[in-house]
Design brief:
By secondary structure, this protein is mainly alpha-helical. The protein is 89% helix and 0% strand.
């Protein structure tokens, strides 16, 4: 899962985007504007997509477990 320092999470994507853009720019010969767009996509858009996916997974897991938890609470209250 996504745990730890949020700055580390953000910096890892920024550095990965920068490294990929520079590699494509220098080694493959991608134009500078295209390399910049790749940097923006990997550095800024990809983290948002990863966080959105993790949030949806967490909500789905909570929704799956909620009926069992409510049932356990009801049975505990009835038992006294």
């Amino acid at each position: 899962g996504i745990t730890g320092n949020p700055m580390t999470f953000a910096m890892s994507f920024l550095l990965a985007g920068l490294a990929l853009a520079l590699l494509l720019w220098f080694l493959v010969g991608v134009s500078a504007p295209a390399a910049f767009l790749i940097f923006l996509a990997v550095g800024f858009a990809l983290p948002l997509l990863v966080l959105r996916r993790a949030c949806k997974k967490r909500i789905a897991k909570f929704a799956r477990q909620l009926p069992d938890a409510l049932d356990m609470i009801v049975r505990s209250l009835r038992a006294g």
